[in-house]
Amino acid sequence: MEILTTPPQAPGGCVLAVGVFDGVHPGHRVLLARAKGIAESLRVPLAVFTFDNMPQKGGCIFPFSHNAELLGSCGVDAVYRADFEQIRRLDAETFARDTVAGGFAARAAVCGGDFRFGFGREGTPELLSKYVPLVVTVPEFRKNGAAVSSSLIREKLRKGDIPAANALLGREYSFCFKTVRGSQLGTKLGFPTANQIFPEGMCIPRYGVYAGRCSVGGKEYECVLDIGVKPTVCENARPGCETHIFGAADIAYGDELRVFPQVFLRPERRFGDAAELAAAVERDVEKAKLIYARKMRSFTKKELQK
What we know:
Blueprint: E1 2-4, E2 14-18, H1 26-42, E3 46-51, H2 64-73, E4 78-82, H3 84-87, H4 92-103, E5 106-112, H5 125-128, E6 134-138, E7 142-143, E8 146-147, H6 150-158, H7 162-169, E9 175-178, H8 185-189, E10 194-197, E11 208-216, E12 219-228, E13 240-245, E14 256-267, H9 274-293, H10 301-304
Parallel strand pairs: 1-4, 2-3, 2-5, 3-4, 5-6
Antiparallel strand pairs: 7-8, 9-14, 10-13, 11-12, 11-14, 12-13
Helix pairs in contact: 6-7
């Protein structure tokens, strides 16, 4: 799959799926499957028009690179990475005529039923149909009676409700960033950690401690992780994740570590001193190990609060 900064020069045009696609949740995948079917029937590539720097309330679920990987797994041939600040200034008719129909030579456009585009969000699928031979709108995807949306997934993450976010995503939520050098306090306390910093613009799960899993170098480990700003030891720290891995994981600074938060254990808090912090971490580790011993089941809220 290609990542493009200019429209694809595909002979015969393409089918263009248009949207933000943050998280590539089941609703997105239904839309992409519909677009792929049309592309195959027309024997043209499937391209996605999405945005590079579109501001999202609460941040993006995944960075662009991860969303692009997920789009590729849905059969997308090319992803066009548009600059939101440039596109938002275009009037709707110019975008439909010059970008979708002209630049992409779109033979079909596929979008959500509520899709709007152009300056002031004045553009509609009906306007697109003036310039594109086939415009298909896909209804919102619903699960258990509720609409699945990226904004709802962000809400669940910010509440620390990882199981609910996973159910909406249709996969396990995770993040993957390079490890960085930390303060080494965890090692001094007997609980060494792999440290990561969240990029700007990311939706950060609720600050606190989680039982989870992580993977590095093709191996997977159980772990306990702390998401937040380390209020006991730092002032004005950037939001990050400290992961204490159960087992001998061979990690070097700069390695890519994928982390899967799974069960929220407690909120982040400021402790009086290092000894108090060490005792809390020890309790966190015990709770996480108990969760794994029970295979992620039958752990009550009362037990988590002990």
